[in-house]
Amino acid sequence: MSKSKDEIVRVTTHTLGELKEKGEKISMLTAYDYSLGKIVDASGIEVILVGDSASNVMAGHETTLPITLDQMIYHATAVVKAAKRALVVVDIPFGSYQGSSSEALKSAIRIMKESGAHAVKMEGGKEIKESIMRVLSAGVPVMGHLGLMPQSIYKFGTYTVRAKAEEEAEKLIEDALELEKCGCFAIVLEKIPASLAKSVTSELKIPVIGIGAGPYTDGQVLVVHDVLGINKDFNPRFLRRYADLNTVISEAIKHYIHDIKSGSFPNQKESY
Ligand code: KIV
Asked: What Rg, from alpha-carbon coordinates, does the chain have?
């Protein structure tokens, strides 16, 4: 059967590998709900991450730790419905994979089965290798995550740049190589020096996606609420804002309130 001209071709984990080989940068953005997920997908992004940053931007928690597996599945289900082209990757939340490899497998299977997502992401290196391998053995693609790992924020103590010291940088390189060896299809490097991210990217065959990791990685990821300027309280150096939706939305709502108070809304055409 031949493909129709308008048929949408799904981005897969293999597509990302091909993009790296071709030297074409990979675009990735978070989404947590159906409406924004639809816009992000239709804009042509390659990967949508249903990040556990939903804990911060959707639920208002200070860290990513409180979000539950059920809540992640709720967000992921909505995004999967919206995404016709992008690869949808879902964070396994804190407390749903650290206990044992069988817990990791159960959580990953719940995410894949209940939400319809295409892959999961897990934070950590060698210390979670067994869990990653168990998830992979069930046919679930895994994206790794090294550098600043927000689920370990209380161990790190701060959100400052990671792996500046030689020892930590060496561990990060070893972990990245190990994740590739295990079979991860890609890794995220968060908030590390650009030179270190450059070395890891050239050492690995799998795609490396950076956030606050400089320009040399195979792709970039940011949180959609930050990119769109919905959340104005978060201003790290690595963030580039592409819109000021906070002001746009606030002005629109003020206009709406004004029209109600003045009696100009609804008018005759807006009434039955
Ligand atoms: O949860 C998230 O949004 C993430 C990205 C910052 C990579 O893990």
From this structure: 20
For residue 220, give the CATH number of its domain: 3.20.20.60
User: What secondary structure letter does DSSP report for 99?
Assistant: S
Type of residue at 23: G
Give the model confidence (pLDDT) of 105-157 as tens digits. Answer: 999 999 999 999 999 999 999 999 999 999 999 999 999 999 999 999 999 99
**178 lies in a domain?**
yes
Q: Residues 46, 123, 180, 190: which is the catalytic one? A: 190
Q: Are 195 and 161 in contact (CB under 8 A)?
A: no
- Take residue 236 and report the two structure tokens written for it: 């790290």
Find the DSSP H helices in the chain.
Answer: 13-22, 34-42, 54-57, 69-82, 101-115, 129-137, 153-156, 166-182, 194-203, 224-227, 245-262
- Clarify whether residues 258 and 237 are in a common domain: no
- 230-258 pLDDT, tens digit each: 988 899 999 999 999 999 999 999 999 99
Domain of 272, in residue numbers: 245-272
CA of 50 to the centre of ligand 1 (A): 8
Which of 66, 40, 67, 60 is closest to 233 using CA atoms? 60
Structure tokens at 34: 């159906």
Q: How many domains does the chain have?
A: 2
Summarised one tens digit per residue, pLDDT across range 193-225 is 999 999 999 999 999 999 999 999 999 999 999
Specify whether 190 is catalytic. Answer: yes
Dig out the tokens for 21 from the structure.
Answer: 């080989």
Name the residue at shortest CA distance from atom 4 of ligand 1: 51
- Strand-pairing partners, residue 119, are 89
- The values of phi and psi at residue 173, to 5°, are -65, -45
Length of the chain: 272
Are 183 and 221 members of one domain?
Answer: yes
